[in-house]
Known about the structure:
With 226 residues, this protein is α+β, with helices and mostly antiparallel strands. The chain is 27% helix and 23% strand. The termini are far apart.
Amino acid sequence: MTARFRSKSIARPAAAAALALVVAAAPGAALAQQTAPAANANTRTATPAGVTPTTAVAAAPGVNIPTEYTIGADDVLSVIFWRDKELTADVTVRPDGMVSLPLMNDIKASGLTPAQLKDRIVDESKKYVEDPNVTVVVKQINSRKVFITGEVNKAGPYPLTSTTTVLQLLSLAGGFKEYAHTDKISIVRMENGKQTSFKFNYKDVINGKKLQQNIELKPNDTIIVP
């Protein structure tokens, strides 16, 4: 399969050169030259609006890519090869962190930025096409989650798709149950393999005191409301 795909890619320049010689020698060459680009345009792969051949990484409409975003399980990506639609595919990152692309082996995506994944795909695809032009489009971010548990009305995981503070997540969780200890809330975070904890006093914050407690949440943070 590899040999056939490479020969197909390599054959394109040769076929184009042969066509140019025939057209130049035949009557009506000008008309043929005008119609040739339209035929070549049909080989392009359809891409989302705003994506160009020079775009290495893009986001689908409505998707914000956080500054420190790295790809994780369940994220949905579109890998686009310009003029090589056989390799183009929408992929979902598996729980093992891998994605599967046509003709290529599984590629590790989890833990990489979209730009790093694009570079890895380019290196791998050079076995099959010459000068690959690849764009990675982030279509859905499902891997970034925060969790809230305890005496709130809507405990569970919440997607972290934009900047979110403790107070904002408490609001999303529907507020507190009747016997919640709102002055003893804690945020548990894993950093560099170590677990750390932050205190949050809801009454202080809503009264404008000790606002530094209202920290920005990070992926996998857990808010505990006793």
